[in-house]
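Protein: RNA 3'-terminal phosphate cyclase
Species: Natronoglomus mannanivorans
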Amino acid sequence: MHELDGSDAGGQFLRTALSLSAVRGEAVRLENVRGGRSNPGLRPQHLAVLETLAEICDADVSGNELGAETVAFDPGAVTVTGGQYSVEIDTAGSVTLLFDALLPLVTRLESPLSVTATGGTDVAWSPPMDYYRYVKLPLLRRFGLEAAVELDRRGFYPTGGGRATLRLSPSTLAPIRLGEERRTNPEPDYVRVYSTEAAALADSDVASRQAGGALEALSRALGDHDHDHDHDLTVRDRVETTAESACPGSAVVLRIDGSNTIAGFTALGEPGKRAERVGEEAADAAKRFLASDAPVDRHMADQLLVFLALAGGRVKIPTVTDHVDSSLALLESMGDELIVDREELVVSRENA
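Structure follows.
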């Protein structure tokens, strides 16, 4: 039984602990769940993760109720038989964060696993669905992860109601090596932009304006210092989608492709915020990334740590965020110590 304390952490601490417990067949007990948040304890999306993993792994669980600040999880077996499951997350709880907790199961699956979830697909404090489908999963597939997501319906805050299915197949992960060759070219080989609007916003051309704002801002950022002319971006994909949804909302995702690089940058629409500004926010994050020599964005850096623990490898990251520090501490407490070079911003583990 691993005894863990989430006093200074949030939901990701819980999700990663449960994922590793399920994969390793080792029980965990978490005190002060989400103690670092203003509303500690299990919220709907965290409860959904706990109950879904418990059902898939036939685990013994305590503390599986809203608001619980102490949780125990004891998986029934190291292997996972697969099958089909359905999950409903109340309100606009994040579907992509639920899926995140399930991805490591590929290393223990005996047969394909399918999980259909209803909730928020494009909501704050979590990866938008297009980041998940077009940035994270393509990067992980390079290292052997067999996973795909089918999106049936978008769900924005506050109503949610989105619906998507994660399909996982038994996978053998290769060591994750990113950044061993230094990225010296600050310009992307090409970019992709995925912009989505709820049908209620179609008359305002929100998706088109978000995409245009993102590409124009990124082009300006890559131009001459005096901005006399714009950089000629190579746009591989410009996908604008109008989606049926239970409430209005919008999202934009910029994907940067380069040598040894897949990185994503996102922004969500808000009441009163111009669609062009939403796109510019994603471009601003991309600009900061391109000024570094890291091969992945700051959010992906954190999300890759559990896969480094499982498969080994070496990843150059853009910065050591609080989430990175929290994840490193959790992994160490569960026996998966990663080596961190804080000067060179490299995280590694050999012989996982």
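Remarks: The first strand starts at residue 2 and ends at 5.
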